[in-house]
Amino acid sequence: MPRYKYQCSNCEHIVLVFHGMNDVFKEKCIMCKIENTLKKILTRPTIVQKEPIDQEQEVGEITKEHIESNREILMQQKKEAKEENYEPS
Predict the structure, then answer these.
(1) Is the model more confident about 2 or about 57?
(2) Contacting residues for 10 by C-beta, under 8 A, at least 6 apart
(3) How far is the C-alpha of 74 from the C-alpha of 67, rounded, in Å?
(4) Model pTM?
(5) For 3, what's the count of Cα atoms within 13 Å in the CB-facing half-sphere?
(6) Is 14 in contact with 5 (CB distance < 8 Å)?
(7) CA distance 22 to 37
(8) Sign of the CA dihedral running 43, 53, 56, 72
(9) Where are the domains of the chain?
(10) Is there a contact between 6 and 34 (Cβ–Cβ < 8 Å)?
(11) Staple partner for 8: which of 29, 47, 59, 83, CB 3.0–4.6 Å?
(12) Quick check: 34 and 7 in contact, CB under 8 A?
């Protein structure tokens, strides 16, 4: 089962969650106890090698799958960054 990292938009706490790729995770933050504040954040793929296989092909396929699964999250984060107003430092 895949693992995902979620970050609370209220307290910025990060939690690691295991759930299916098509499951939607809707829980409240364990730190601040506020619902609907957890957003999925980008993560690196985890490669578990059970038996020696052609590593280049295996790693390449895992990387492609991971890129596709995080593409939507990245697009949403880009959109939010463009909409946010930044003050000069």
Answers:
(1) 2
(2) 29, 32, 34, 37
(3) 10
(4) 0.48
(5) 11
(6) yes
(7) 20
(8) negative
(9) 3-83
(10) no
(11) 29
(12) no
CA atoms of 2 and 21, how far apart (whole Å): 7
Neighbouring CB atoms inside 10 A of 1's CB total 8
Measured distance CA(81)–CA(75) in Å, rounded: 10
Closest C-alpha to 3, from 34, 59, 45, 64:
45
Is residue 13 classed as helix, strand or coil in its secondary structure?
A: coil
Where do we find the tokens 């990060």?
Answer: 14
The answer to whether 2 and 25 have CB atoms below 8 angstroms apart is no
Secondary structure of residue 18 in the 3-state scheme: strand
- For the stretch 50-80, pLDDT in tens is 666 555 556 778 788 888 888 888 888 888 8
Q: Which residues face 18 on adjacent strands?
A: 3
Amino acid at 78: K
